[in-house]
Amino acid sequence: MLVSLSVSICVCRASSIQEDSAMENIVTEKKVEESHRQDSADLLIFIMLLTLTILTIWLFKHRRFRFLHETGLAMIYGVLVGVVLRYGIHVPRDISNVTMSCHVNASPATLLVNVSGKFYEYTLKGEIGANEVNDVQDNEMLRKVTFDPEVFFNILLPPIIFHAGYSLKRRHFFRNMGSILAYAFLGTVVSCFVIGLLMYGCVLLMKQVGQLGGDFFFTDCLFFGAIVSATDPVTVLAIFNELQVDVDLYALLFGESVLNDAVAVILSSSIVAYQPQGDNSHTFEVMALLKSFGMFLGVFSGSFALGVATGVVTFTKLRDFPLLETALFFLMSWSTFLLAEACGFTGVVAVLFCGITQAHYTFNNLSPDSQDRTKQLFELLNFLAENFIFSYMGLALFTFQSHIFNPMFIVGAFVAVFLGRAANIYPLSLLLNLGRRNKITSNFQHMMMFAGLRGAMTFALSIRDTATYARQMMFTTTLLVVFFTVWICGGGTTQMLSCQHIRYRNLLFQMLLCPDFMTPIVGVDSDQDNPVSSERRSTKQESAWLFRIWYNFDHNYLKPILTHSVTFISVCVSNNPLPSHQNECQLKDDDSDLILTDGDINLTYGDITVSTDASGSHTSGGPAFAGAATSDDLDRELTYGDHELVMRGTRLVLPMDDSEPPFTDPHHRMRM
Amino acid sequence: MLVSLSVSICVCRASSIQEDSAMENIVTEKKVEESHRQDSADLLIFIMLLTLTILTIWLFKHRRFRFLHETGLAMIYGVLVGVVLRYGIHVPRDISNVTMSCHVNASPATLLVNVSGKFYEYTLKGEIGANEVNDVQDNEMLRKVTFDPEVFFNILLPPIIFHAGYSLKRRHFFRNMGSILAYAFLGTVVSCFVIGLLMYGCVLLMKQVGQLGGDFFFTDCLFFGAIVSATDPVTVLAIFNELQVDVDLYALLFGESVLNDAVAVILSSSIVAYQPQGDNSHTFEVMALLKSFGMFLGVFSGSFALGVATGVVTFTKLRDFPLLETALFFLMSWSTFLLAEACGFTGVVAVLFCGITQAHYTFNNLSPDSQDRTKQLFELLNFLAENFIFSYMGLALFTFQSHIFNPMFIVGAFVAVFLGRAANIYPLSLLLNLGRRNKITSNFQHMMMFAGLRGAMTFALSIRDTATYARQMMFTTTLLVVFFTVWICGGGTTQMLSCQHIRYRNLLFQMLLCPDFMTPIVGVDSDQDNPVSSERRSTKQESAWLFRIWYNFDHNYLKPILTHSVTFISVCVSNNPLPSHQNECQLKDDDSDLILTDGDINLTYGDITVSTDASGSHTSGGPAFAGAATSDDLDRELTYGDHELVMRGTRLVLPMDDSEPPFTDPHHRMRM
């Protein structure tokens, strides 16, 4: 088995060797220090990029400049810094290269090198293309700026996906569950295969023309289809929230793009796992296909089960210590990811369903203080991770070493992505409309077609493996697809909405016309205007029987068991001296104000927002208000602020007013 | 220059090599996947440890079990898991070893290995002792659980140190500034040299007896002195806060232990940098000493200046977007660290002074919502990092591969640490008392002597380099010193306080006797009872003239320039319809409620706390209260809660009551 192979060891940054061991130590320390300093400087570049992005976002929000979303902005800054790094900075070539030969039989994970009695340990970083070997020495700096792809998958993606799951608008999500699942599962698979087939055609054509410089198999095409089928919730979410777009459209798009990611991850790993046993590994084989399909189902259900399980398990009763609660919540979310990865499932998918479950059940168990803290923590993590990924994308356009820009492939990909999205949305909508009571109208369909941005997940999947020619070309193309969709489609969302005559309510407009609308926006779900009973009835009418059964089971059994909220609510209601509209809303329907809803997101993203901040004071930010505010508006706003205060006040003062004995419910007393 | 040396390449996890490149890819992918899965499982162990710690802390707090602090607990859990990992789990030896020889001249930072035309990149992980080479294969699992030492220094330590700087009780800190600086600088240097000399004596003795198995130079002894001279703020802070110990003692101990860390870091790196030029590198040389001393001064002042500069620069005006503000604040703190490291200064020290400066100036610029968020974020990061380090310490006792337990050295070290602390506290206190108006009494001195725990910084410094025999023995000994001090001294703090008759007020006791005391504890600094004018007078009396000049300059020029608080306060005061006691306190002295004070820390650490939570409701947690609460107490508490509400309410409702035009101050209006 010990086949002797030629090994050339190329030494970068050769050091002179002293006889004295102490001096040698110092040299090693100096080397480590130098490398550490470089690392710090590299990381500093990204931090500065993020800081710059934040400052500009603020400026944009301040000036109500809505064409460019923060993620698009982060990408632009990334591109600029990438250009500077690539062309502006020249690293002096102080590196002497030593190449030697010896015999080794494989590429182990760990190498031990014995230099004059001292052993040095080396860890495998990855494979390098033959053409890059010289680049290794040339572009030390550029290579340093390039992160380990796994960082995206294991560190940056989880908070984003978790936050997405966490902030799913659950009422509308569940009401449109059937359609969302159809788009996310069936639609993504359809899109994946359509894109895969189209790209295969394109690749065959390229081979004919002689434009192809390496292998490109059908599985590669399918893989490309899988990764570009994952639509991104980020940008659309932000814009729709600002504009208060129709809730059903919002639920459809957001739900689809969140679940989409999960499907795309598992689909792509299933495609990679497709391995026929014969000699020619790129032929069709039924067994291998079935195995891949089985893997898809197994990994998905495993990740789903794990996520839901840990989400439910986060059963905190540490109500008196918000810090401990928040820490525990955070750690449980993270351990979901790690557990799934350790079990061979997909961490990202598990985290998604963990987030959904936590928002549905266990979030209600937290004390109000912890709820604020937890929400804000995940919001911050999501914000940082997201902007980091997008600015890194911009940077990668210039700093990534092995881009392959193939115009034909790129054009083909754009066409395929467009057609793939169309093959997802239009036929499925047609089918779904057969069963739906409130149809998905054609302008909704066009909007969904248009809003299929590609983002963080697509990028993370494509950068994960850039070893082969095919993967490198895919990476370059994917980057361009992301850029195009985020800048063009993301920037044009507002225009597209107006063009499609989709109703969206501007908050300012709404405040002037119908002040009653204010109530649902703050803290309470924006679709809470109609009384709870009619709401429940409409849910019954619209949903499928399977979902209705689940809904009833969940509402009657699961929620009471998994949350302490029932006893809590009954206490609140019985002690409530002020039967105000808001109080009823808030107390009777614990769902609506205990999860992240529109109002909460508005707090940070909207530029015309009316929201409640943590200290209970009433905030109305945004320069639009400054411009258009008449004294009437201000008055109304302030009246509302007062109202809001009273509403919160009742919870506090009420035991005194009623002069009742201290509560028997222990965690309620803790809050007082 | 190309000296041929024998290189043995030891292959762990050899893989069979297929001819087919696709199959080879799969094998590599499988290998990477396997390794990734293992990593996830390892990280999961730590997450589970942290979760367990949090749950037990909660239980302890709930049951008012005060002997063991959470850090001590984390260590115990760490030790238990370490034992299980070491003795409980046997990894099957499925690893075939292949050893080959070839020629290489040095240990470069990057290795390129060419296996059958494919290049694999390897990065230098570190040197391995000759006796560990076999362990590498045996204890893959144990080695995997062992983190890169730099993780502690670059990821876990910064938030802890930043939080410490952030939560320095500034009024008392500045009042005792002279003494704190004396203890931290002079004291640490004295302690370092006393311990170094004693250990050198011990080492010489060991050499005589034949107990020494390797080199141990005088610089090693001094290095040991430097790292064990860093006292830890964590445990003492928590206990003192719970017990509301005398504020001066608290300020002295906390201030010392915070600055201590900075001194110890730079001192140890200066000692490492001490390198005489002659052949015998361990002799005394004046030039090298001067160089070391110059380096100490240079690095310290550089780090100090950088920290202060970035702290001041964080000049946020993004008041309307709490998320952006918090993100910016966080990024600026982090970039301070990175910038310092990239410049060759000490990041930890820069972060410390950045924290102090931010708390003093720029924190006041944040909107109230952002202040809460930022505080809570750093609190959480600090909590997680701290408990992680301490549980890792416990784990390292068993999983670290090259412990050297030398009883004689350990006994010597304990004696030296004790004497070193004594040589720091007693002579310095004697000298300081000559100049101080309120003397440091002898029971305070005993308490300071006793409370010199060693913690995270000592550990991080000692694990940073464990290559040589001397360093390994130091690491083992340091670990034991930390364990002893945290468990014995930390656990005995309450007893020691009673024994030394140092006054500390139990909150419950205090509430029953003097309800007026309630005010200062909640949100406001606990030493705010006396009016501001007398406070300022007393500061003038007690401080040295140099400090007085600085204080006046700071108060009259720096603060007004660097914070917007002046205009903000004037607006508040002019519009304030309710001249209640709390309002005046809060508005006139913006220092006291805008930084982390006792009250805030009580919110999370105390087990009998009365505090204000983020939503403005009034919380009184803790089971002690549940046990002893009479209806009188509850009444008083609720009255207070009402009061508190009104106080917050005034800020909200006041423009309506006054029927004034909208505020002219832009950022104030935003908050409304």
TrEMBL record, chains A, B:
It comes from Sander lucioperca (Pike-perch). Belongs to the monovalent cation:proton antiporter 1 (CPA1) transporter (TC 2.A.36) family. Signal peptide: none annotated. It is found in: Cell membrane; Recycling endosome membrane. InterPro entries: Cation/H_exchanger_CPA1, Cation/H_exchanger_TM, NaH_exchanger, NHE-6/7/9. This is Sodium/hydrogen exchanger. Residues 53-498 form the Cation/H+ exchanger transmembrane domain. Its main location: membrane. Keywords: Antiport, Cell membrane, Endosome, Ion transport, Membrane, Sodium, Sodium transport, Transmembrane, Transmembrane helix, Transport. The keyword Zinc does not apply. GO terms for molecular function: potassium:proton antiporter activity; sodium:proton antiporter activity. One of its GO terms (cellular component) is plasma membrane. The chain crosses the membrane at residues 40-60, 72-89, 151-168, 180-201, 216-240, 293-315, 327-360, 380-400, 407-426, 475-497. It holds the Pfam family Na_H_Exchanger. It is a multi-pass membrane protein. GO terms for biological process: regulation of intracellular pH; sodium ion import across plasma membrane. The gene is slc9a6a.
